[in-house]
Specification:
Blueprint lengths: L2 E2 L1 E4 L15 H14 L3 E3 L7 H13 L7 E7 L2 H11 L5 E8 L2 H7 L4 H18 L3 E6 L6 H14 L3 E6 L6 H18 L4 E6 L6 H10 L4 E4 L13 H10 L1 H4 L1 E2 L7 H12 L20 H9 L26 H11 L6 H18 L4 H19 L9 E9 L6 E8 L2 E8 L3 H12 L5 E9 L8 E9 L2 E9 L2 H18 L8
Helix pairs in contact: 1-2, 1-11, 2-3, 3-5, 5-6, 6-7, 7-8, 8-9, 14-15, 16-17
Bound molecules: 3-methyl-2-oxobutanoic acid and zinc ion.
Length: about 525
């Protein structure tokens, strides 16, 4: 009989460990709401002991997303009392909370990281589980670096923490060392022993992608009895990332004949979730990425197009609509009218109010004038930009005067004196600056730096086209550093100079936003 596989999403914890991908509390809530729409079984919302901001974000997700739902909310703790308390105090508001703790089992971790004996580490783990269990019924124990651990010590640890009350055992391939056959064999043995001890304990895997095998290892684990998979959207995460949720879910669904397993994921939300995560975290999805890359469903060779026209299954194993893409993309123009634009937005499954739609429609007309043809991708970015400009700011309405807004800009590019003149406002104040630079962007950023009173350094500047055609939207992404923290900001516009200015201002505003993130809810 086909088995249900639990999907544990760690985009907001392991995924957020990507340098620069840190989200503010409102962005984390937005991702969590989308993960709920995607119908993941468990959201790992963060690492509360790491900062007050992360603690508050997990707490708000537990309160606002984790109520009246079967979906569990968890967060990570090391096997120490203060971390466990932080997780407990953040997730306890959810209807189904869980404490997740991690402690290494490999010799490298036990001896080199902790300088302790194996027995000492095992005892620390058991005591931590007993403590967590005294706080709430659901406790997951992760045996960090399991794939490089001595098998019998790994088993001894698992047996002891189950005895102490752990309800889920997570076996991580922390450094992406495993290969599918070996990993599958290990999971098979562990699963047999675990189910003999307690058939209700779920066996989970968490695979990293250092050798490009995270998805393969995860699937091999499922084939060998794992009940639960830990994944991230678009495969983001520490170093080379984690197993990609969309790949694991679609492999289980498309090859159900082989795996005999299914998930509860709402597959039609896969593309939207990917876009939201990519956009909020500022992490582009590689174009040929399985399932969520731009080219994943594009057929370019004449032979393939011909074959598809004769029979879709000649070259297509997943119908694009299964993951939430439109089968036939309608191209909008300035003459398309409100109804067609509203319809296209609804088809992208983006919820906006009538009032927001009016604002988006005005932006649409401007874009359609500049670009002539507007595709779904353009529309998605347009709505997102609009919401970011207008609604996110509403979260900080009482502080609206603290944010910078670009009013006007003129940049002249010539080989002798590239120059920029800008007008920026902040509340009722207006600032102007005119500067020359080594090039137009240098002149622009020098002018902005002169008037924007935020201490930040640009580490990276990247410009790319995000949509099709020569009038494509240009995306500018910058990475800035401020007081040892890295921020990624981006902006899109058909005028890339304007996008460059907006990206700078977005970065400054992200740093300012941090002051207003609530410390008490
Ligand atoms: O990679 C890892 O081992 C982890 C654990 C916290 C599960 O992320
Ligand atoms: Zn990890």
């Amino acid at each position: 009989m086909s088995r249900k596989i639990w999907v544990f999403d760690t985009t907001l914890r392991d995924g957020e460990q990507v340098p620069g991908a840190k989200l503010n509390i409102y962005e984390k809530l937005e991702v969590a709401q989308q993960l709920k729409k995607l119908q993941v079984d468990i959201i790992e919302a963060g690492f509360p002991a790491s900062s007050e901001g992360d603690f508050q974000a997990v707490k708000q997700i537990a309160q606002q997303v984790g109520g009246s739902t079967n979906m569990m909310i968890t967060a990570l703790a090391r096997a120490v009392k203060s971390d466990i308390d932080a997780v407990y105090n953040a997730v306890k508001y959810a209807e189904n909370p869980m404490i997740h703790m991690v402690l290494g089992t490999s010799d490298i971790h036990v001896e080199k990281k902790f300088s302790k004996s194996k027995d000492q580490i095992l005892q620390i783990g058991v005591d931590a589980v007993k403590y967590a269990k005294s706080l709430m019924p659901q406790v997951q124990y992760s045996t960090e670096d399991a794939s490089r651990s001595d098998f019998e010590y790994l088993w001894k640890t698992i047996e002891a923490v189950i005895d102490a009350g752990a309800t889920m055992i997570n076996v991580p391939d922390t450094v992406g060392w495993a290969v599918p056959e070996q990993f599958g064999d290990m999971i098979y043995k562990l699963n047999n022993r675990i189910k003999n001890v307690n058939p209700d304990v779920l066996l989970s895997v968490h695979c990293h992608n250092d050798l490009g095998m995270a998805t393969a290892n995860t699937l091999q684990a499922v084939k060998n009895g794992a009940d639960k998979v830990e994944c991230t959207v678009n495969g983001i995460g520490e170093r080379a990332g984690n197993a990609a949720l969309e790949e694991v879910v679609m492999a289980l669904s498309t090859r159900g004949d082989y795996f005999d397993a299914f998930t509860s994921i709402n597959k039609k939300e896969i593309i939207n979730t990917s876009k939201i995560v990519s956009s909020l975290m500022g992490l582009d999805v590689q174009v040929n990425k399985a399932i969520t890359g731009d080219n994943a469903f594009a057929h370019s060779s004449g032979i393939h197009q011909d074959g598809l026209l004769k029979s879709r299954d000649a070259y297509e194993i997943i119908h694009p609509t299964e993951v939430g893409l439109d089968d036939m993309e309608l191209i909008l123009t300035a003459r398309s009218g409100r109804h067609a634009v509203r319809n296209a937005i609804n088809n992208l499954s983006i919820d906006i109010t009538d009032e927001q739609f009016e604002g988006v429609f005005a932006d649409f007309l401007e874009l359609a004038d500049a670009k002539k043809e507007v595709y779904d991708h353009d529309l998605f970015i347009l709505v997102e930009d609009y919401l970011r400009r207008h609604d996110k700011i509403a979260n900080f309405e009482k502080h609206a005067d603290a944010f910078y807004v670009l009013e006007d800009i003129q940049v002249i590019s010539n080989p002798i004196f590239p120059s920029a003149t800008i007008k920026v406002s902040k509340g009722t104040e207006t600032f102007r600056a005119s500067t020359v630079g080594t090039g137009p962007i240098d002149a622009l950023y020098t002018a902005l730096k002169e008037v924007i009173d935020v201490d930040m350094n640009i580490m990276e500047y990247k410009i790319s086209s995000v949509t099709r055609g020569k009038e494509a939207l240009g995306k500018v992404k910058i990475q800035v550093q401020s007081h040892d923290k890295t921020y990624i900001a981006k902006a899109t516009h058909t005028d890339v100079i304007r996008a460059s200015a907006e990206a700078y201002i977005n970065a400054a505003n992200s740093i300012i936003v941090e002051q207003f993130v609530p410390t008490e809810v």
